[in-house]
Specification:
The structure is a single chain. This protein has helices at 6-18, 64-72, 103-118, 130-133, 200-203, 224-235, 260-263, 280-288, 300-311; strands at 23-25, 37-39, 87-89, 125-128, 142-150, 154-163, 170-177, 184-190, 195-197, 221-222, 241-242. The model is unreliable at 1-38 (pLDDT under 50). The protein starts with 5 loop residues before the first helix and ends with a helix. The protein has 2 domains: 1-40, no CATH class; 41-251, no CATH class. The chain has 9 helices and 11 strands. The protein has 314 residues and is α+β, with helices and mostly antiparallel strands. Bound molecules: heme C (2 copies).
Length: 314
């Protein structure tokens, strides 16, 4: 990892917690402007843009202890494990000179990481996710354990998820096939005996492959330096394409989001894939909570333009 060293982050993180803030200073002044704060986990707060369809959910009754209690039901030995690298290395791919993983190879990576998680061989972060908890999706805490893996041919992600009331944890995975240019992202639910590829269901939030980590509150994450490191790994991913399985082909998503203040990054030739109406939910949340666009707030007239586009009937 180039910009910040993790041991340094951990030390700084402890210090900044003592100071009552989650902001830390960049460790390498050559890479960051002098004194620029690098936020580890930005506290999630609505900026009141009026883009949200439901009022921000009040989770103040829900404590960190409540969070850890539910998170631990997955098996305390599987989570909050010691780590040096945020991304667990997978064994080399068995086939050499690969140009395009087969669907069976993709499924096998997905089952492999499920097994590694269950045996306590993964390095998962745990959080209550902002995007899945806010708005009308469930409006109750959504518990996530997320782990990243890779080898020379693939970046593999595992999500182990449930709400407080669900009895069992669901397993979901993303495999980025790096042997293709651009890489191809497969999505699936990973059951014990079956890996079920999915398309539209996942695309409505995952418009550009894996999503950055955004906990719903700064204390509803464990451990924060790991979450920041995995978020960085995800943010630095190559621009990829979404794999729609033959059984679940891409519908017609209509016209892409046009305003330049989004499309200069989100477009067919941008850093991230284009955004469509179907992405309204993550758009409303990431903009209202001040994560998008990165590094600045939208001007009132830009918010009006975005809102008009989101509200327009097709
Ligand atoms: C309602 C929006 C939504 C939908 C629909 C959705 N996801 Fe996600 N997913 C997220 C968010 C948000 C995160 C990051 C959560 C966090 O911050 O903890 C995430 C994380 C993940 C991760 C961990 C890697 C990453 O992207 O951070 C995997 C794997 C994953 N999702 C798979 C799937 C699969 C497979 C489907 C379809 C079956 C799916 N997701 C559908 C919102 C969604
Ligand atoms: C300077 C480039 C840039 C601009 C401008 C920008 N984004 Fe993003 N956006 C990103 C990057 C990089 C990510 C992935 C990393 C992250 O989430 O932090 C992202 C992630 C997203 C996501 C999650 C899906 C994904 O691609 O991972 C949504 C939704 C989104 N942006 C919406 C918007 C909207 C709406 C606007 C305009 C109001 C906007 N963005 C403007 C760079 C940009």
């Amino acid at each position: 990892m180039s910009v910040l060293s993790y041991s340094r982050i951990r030390g700084l993180f402890a210090a900044s917690l003592l100071a009552g803030t989650l902001v830390l200073r960049a460790a390498d002044p050559a890479k960051e402007p002098a004194g620029a704060p690098t936020e580890l986990i930005k506290p999630a707060a609505s900026t009141g843009t009026g883009l949200l369809l439901e009022p921000p959910l009040d989770l103040s009754r829900f404590t960190r202890e409540d969070f850890l209690k539910v998170a631990n039901t997955v098996g305390p030995e599987r989570i909050r494990r010691p780590w040096t690298s945020p991304v667990t290395t997978l064994p080399p791919h068995p086939r050499t000179g690969v140009k395009g993983l087969t669907e069976d190879e993709v499924r096998s990576y997905m089952s492999q990481v499920r097994g590694m998680f269950n045996r306590g061989e993964a390095v998962p972060l745990s959080d209550v996710g902002l995007i899945s908890t806010q708005e009308d999706v469930i409006r109750r805490p959504m518990f996530n354990h997320i782990a990243a893996f890779s080898n020379a041919v693939a970046r593999v992600y595992l999500l182990v998820q449930k709400t407080e009331r669900d009895k069992s944890w669901g397993y979901f995975s993303i495999v980025q096939d790096l042997t293709l240019d651009p890489p191809l992202d497969y999505f699936a639910e990973v059951r014990e005996k079956e890996v079920k590829f999915e398309g539209a269901n996942c695309y409505k939030c995952h418009s550009s492959g894996p999503l950055s980590i955004h906990p719903t509150r700064a204390d509803l994450v464990a451990d924060a330096p790991l979450a920041a490191a995995i978020a960085k790994h995800i943010a630095e991913q190559p621009r990829s394409r979404f794999h729609f399985p033959a059984t679940d082909p891409a519908p017609d998503y209509g016209k892409a989001l046009a305003p330049k203040f989004c499309s200069r990054c989100h477009s067919d030739d941008g850093d991230r894939g284009p955004l469509f109406k179907v992405h309204a939910h993550p758009i409303r949340i990431l903009v209202d909570f001040g994560y998008m666009p990165p590094n600045r707030a939208l001007k009132p007239e830009e918010i009006t333009e975005l809102k008009a586009w989101l509200d327009r009937k097709p």
